[in-house]
Specification:
32% of the residues are buried. With 214 residues, this protein is mainly alpha-helical. It starts with a strand and ends in a 13-residue tail after the last helix.
Length: 214
């Protein structure tokens, strides 16, 4: 069961106050996907993880929290304006793209990677393959930037392997998996990586869950 409650949040950029739903509690039944997306019921609460101010379109996990380096000038830059004005993107997806872009532009590549991945999940849910691949590729780009200074983050390296496979880059996924499997000590990560290699050999770009490994 999932419980929701609403609270007022004031935008840190423009000061506008809006009510948003937040998750009080939820439940997970089953294994997460290999790209870390949780099972239901948590899976369906994704849309509540990011807020967007309806006035200035600032977006963050909570609009009352400032992303360091973001100001009104950045929010009104050409890149952000093109996203905000794109009527083909519904607001539930748009807020994730805006938040991801803001984290990218302020060089927080870790959060940018996960927010772009969350965007891909939302496109998965509406079977928009073109955009789900597009935003996985953006997540890959962010992960690679993050790993330039955090290459000991083996969980993020493992996530990268899955995203490469899901975007049909089997060769690079196999190379990354083989490089990582030789250095990780965690047996679960080793098992995941070996399974990813099998999937890549089969040219399988589909969603798979952790439950298939146990």
């Amino acid at each position: 069961m999932t419980t929701l409650f609403s609270l007022d949040y004031s935008c840190t950029i423009c000061g506008h106050t809006t009510k948003f739903y937040s998750i009080g509690s939820t439940t997970i039944f089953g294994y997460m996907d290999l790209d870390t997306r949780p099972a239901e019921l948590k899976r369906s609460t994704l849309v509540y993880d990011v807020q967007m101010c309806p006035k200035c379109h600032y977006a963050n996990y909570e609009i009352s929290d400032l992303i360091v380096g973001v100001d009104h000038r950045l929010l009104t830059s050409d890149r952000l304006k093109s996203i905000i004005s794109d009527d083909t993107i519904n607001d539930d997806i748009k807020k994730f793209i805006i938040a991801a872009t803001l984290y990218e532009l302020t060089e927080n590549y870790h959060d940018a990677a996960y927010l772009y991945l969350n965007t891909a999940w939302l496109y998965d849910d509406i079977t928009d393959l073109e955009n789900s691949i597009k935003y996985r590729k953006l997540s890959i780009e962010m992960i690679k930037k993050y790993l330039t200074t955090n290459n000991d983050d083996h969980h993020m390296c493992c996530l990268l392997v899955d995203l490469l496979r899901r975007t049909n880059d089997y060769s690079q996924a196999i190379t990354a998996a083989n490089d990582l499997v030789n250095v990780v000590k965690d047996e679960l990560l080793k098992n995941i990586l070996n399974y990813q290699i099998e999937l890549c050999i089969d040219k399988d770009n589909q969603c798979h869950s952790l439950g298939e490994i146990f």
